[in-house]
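Quick one: structure tokens for this chain, please?
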Amino acid sequence: MKIKINNIGLIDTAEIRLDGLTIIAGENDSGKSTIGKALFSMIKAINNYKKDYIEDIVANISDLLDDFYFLLRSSRSRQDNNEYAERFHPLKFNFFLDDFSKTESLNSLNRFLDEYQQSLSEEIKNLNLNEKQSKELKGMFEKLNSIQENLYSDEESNRYVFKTISQILKSEFKLDLNNKFTKKRGSIEYIENGRAKFRVYTIDNLIKECRYSSYPAELDDVTYIESPFVFQMHKLITEYQFFNNTIMKGTQKNYHTAFPYHIKDLVTKLSISNYYDSYLEDNNTNIIDTISRIISGETSFNKENDEFVFQKKVNDKDFSFNTSNVASGIKSFSVIQTLLKAYAIKKRSLLIIDEPEVHLHPEWQVKYCEIIIALVESGVKVVVNSHSPYIIQALKYLSEQKELKDQTHFYISSKAESNKKTIVENVDDNLNSIFKKLSDPLQKLIWE
């Protein structure tokens, strides 16, 4: 599994393997986060486009069921309306549509629409519709037939793939997708089992071409951790989402909002952590308990107060603290702890962590690396962007100690051409190049 990037952001060329643990080192503004965002976008698009397609189908059918119901009801006498409401009320079909949203069975939906149309046709025979009603009814049937005809359409699938990846990349990169210093075409290619799963070509910050393979993906999901302060952003983001969803009601899903999609995705996962406590796997529980011992407590979501709280025991007494009043280092561990509770970190998932050292003392940087290694051992794929020698050295030592060396890859991102682009190189056999790059500033300060 790997990702290839050309002329995206500052990245000139990069080819990154994802075999278990991937570490990308480099100074600030060298493109490390660009790789994480590109990877997040590709994997999200692969797994989301069909969900978006299903959501839009359900929304369109629900609207049509409403339209049919109210049009036919208007042609009925008052005494017939109760009987009619029992047979054709849209709420009667909501259970099936909810079930379809979960199973995504197009065959079941097609059978449902056939039966619904047949029942409607029988009902219409008993009605005396005026010219306007007949015209409206004809238009509704045409819309319903169009939905059925497009259920298995490759063209329709391609349209949703293109739309989904376009919106996610726009949410992540805004107008900075392509390198501003070059007119070259950009590309992102995600590869599984030696085959290109998803390939995107971009010009002037727009996707011009998109190719994908429909075979099942190896990864079901991806999570991007940028900052532990996401706990404080929870209410702001959820309130914004509620407002945005209210305004956008009845329209297609919109990824392009004020917050990058990876932040909204993270907040959503953290907020559902209290639903999965009884379903956790033993390995998740073990890592959660390990984190609790490190930070001397545990973070959870209080649904009643709509806030995250950190709980700890002191002298056999329980104390709770709002996470806004908790050390940023504790929050760093708590993000992983809460994601494990939400069952968002598991096999067939990728975890991207951006510069975790920013909020951690060197001792806790090492502890954090122990958690990362435990996740990799459990089958989770992890990408870490870092400019900390503690993080890099600890991951090198621990991966070798746990016999994960063959699954671990190191890369260095270096600026070139007067900082107009960066080159990303594999340094599995030369980690000294990373440590030299990170130690140069201090050596220059002392010796020059």
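DSSP finds 13 helices and 14 strands in the chain.
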